[in-house]
């Protein structure tokens, strides 16, 4: 691909979504955009660029942007964030929102729904304590295709084997031909909306918990900072923000600070919350000595093997000693790291 064409497309995608494509991702652009070009009877990316330069077709530009998103997700991704939600954040919400009996959760990069449905399953398991509560889970994403899949709640055998405890599969899913569909009661717990994180967030309202995991890694520092700044304004004083394992607010935004002891969880700077300002969570359950997660890790996670086509491999297992007494190789990037070259779009788009 000509450098000018690459630059044109990379700028278009960055302006519309915040996603940064560096020259070493040219292969990714080719592999993901060739189908878009062919679908329109074009021979290749040169034609695509020429057509957009001649006339900016917004539907085509959206399609290109969507094709360049990485939608990798799985149930109970990284496990720990959901343990923290169940054991600390949720008990805190139950205590601090006891009078109004309501709270709102935002999954800001919901992709195909595994993250909001994981939260919904945690809430279902705590149904006895939440009787009479009004809880909203809003799942947003820039990708319409992913939102459609999320709404349908249909997952392949492979997808339900990634992170989902078998008891949850049996309890909350039904088999339809080759696919598994999550129960209607769980689907009804999540509202999906198309939303671009670059846009004004005011209309979304205020949230008590925000999951914004494994999306900021694809943005540059300035965009990450701007998104976090806006997001902080949509959160209650004591709200908490979850970021992905390879993401942080440190050096990027002053709007949040890490909650001590809760990895990946951030509170609003200057917030008055029991979690957000690092004070012990009101109603937090005492930590068991060896905290059982209750969520079984799928085999590939335990062995540090990433499934084929995954953009973000599961957390690697402890590095093994190398033959000949060599020290172990350093661990690879954590889940969601953009340092790893991205493979072609995983099959997630077409279950
Ligand atoms: C790797 S997935 C993360 C899914 C989930 N949060 C998780 O951690 O498993 C990243 C998602 O961010 C979405 N995304 C990328 N840019 C976005 C933007 N500007 N606004 C909203 N969503 C965006 C993509 O469409 C994709 O579904």
From TrEMBL:
The alphabetical list of record keywords is:
Methyltransferase, S-adenosyl-L-methionine, Transferase
Q: What class of enzyme is it?
A: transferase
Q: Where is this chain compositionally biased, Low complexity type?
A: 277-294, 309-324
Give me the segments passing through the membrane: none
Catalysis: reaction(s): L-glutamyl-[protein] + S-adenosyl-L-methionine = [protein]-L-glutamate 5-O-methyl ester + S-adenosyl-L-homocysteine
> Which one Pfam family would you cite for this protein?
CheR_N
Record-annotated CheR-type methyltransferase domain positions = 1-257
Q: Where is the composition biased (Pro residues)?
A: 340-351
**Annotated stretches, region: Disordered:** 277-351
Cite a single GO BP annotation: methylation
User: Do the record's keywords include Transferase?
Assistant: yes
Q: Which SUPFAM superfamilies match?
A: Chemotaxis receptor methyltransferase CheR, N-terminal domain (SSF47757), S-adenosyl-L-methionine-dependent methyltransferases (SSF53335)
Q: Which InterPro entries match?
A: Bact_Chemotaxis_MeTrfase, CheR_C, CheR_MeTrfase, CheR_N, CheR_N_sf, SAM-dependent_MTases_sf
Q: Please state the Enzyme Commission number of this protein.
A: 2.1.1.80
One GO molecular function term of this record is: protein-glutamate O-methyltransferase activity
Q: What is this protein called?
A: protein-glutamate O-methyltransferase
């Amino acid at each position: 691909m000509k450098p000018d064409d690459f630059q044109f497309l990379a700028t278009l995608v960055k302006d519309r979504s915040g996603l940064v494509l560096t020259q070493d991702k040219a292969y990714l652009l080719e592999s993901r955009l060739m189908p878009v070009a062919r679908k329109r009877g074009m021979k290749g990316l040169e034609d695509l660029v020429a057509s957009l330069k001649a006339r900016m077709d917004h539907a085509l530009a959206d399609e290109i942007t969507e094709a360049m998103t990485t939608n990798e997700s799985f149930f109970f991704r990284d496990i720990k964030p959901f343990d923290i939600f169940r054991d600390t954040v949720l008990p805190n919400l139950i205590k601090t929102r006891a009078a109004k009996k309501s709270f709102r959760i935002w999954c800001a990069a919901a992709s195909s729904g595994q993250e909001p449905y994981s939260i919904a399953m945690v809430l279902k398991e705590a149904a006895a304590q939440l009787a009479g509560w009004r809880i909203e889970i809003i799942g947003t994403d820039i990708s319409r295709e992913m939102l459609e899949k999320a709404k349908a709640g249909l997952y392949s055998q492979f997808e339900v084997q990634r992170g989902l405890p078998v008891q949850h599969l049996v309890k909350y899913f039904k088999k339809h031909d080759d696919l598994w569909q999550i129960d209607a009661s769980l689907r009804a717990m999540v509202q999906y909306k198309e939303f671009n994180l670059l846009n004004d967030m005011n209309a979304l309202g205020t949230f008590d918990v925000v999951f914004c995991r494994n999306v900021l890694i694809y943005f540059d520092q300035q965009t990450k900072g701007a998104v976090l700044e806006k997001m902080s304004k949509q959160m209650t004083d004591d709200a908490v923000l979850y970021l992905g394992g390879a993401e942080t607010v440190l050096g990027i935004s002053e709007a949040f600070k890490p909650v001590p002891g809760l990895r990946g969880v951030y509170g609003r700077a200057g917030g008055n919350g029991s979690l957000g300002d690092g004070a012990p969570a009101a109603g937090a359950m005492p930590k068991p000595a060896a905290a059982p997660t209750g969520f079984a890790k799928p085999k590939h996670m335990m062995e540090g093997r990433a499934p084929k086509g995954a953009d973000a491999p599961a957390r690697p297992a402890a590095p093994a000693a190398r033959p000949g007494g060599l020290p172990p190789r350093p661990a690879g990037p954590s889940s969601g790291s953009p340092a790893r070259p991205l493979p072609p779009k995983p099959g997630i788009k077409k279950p």
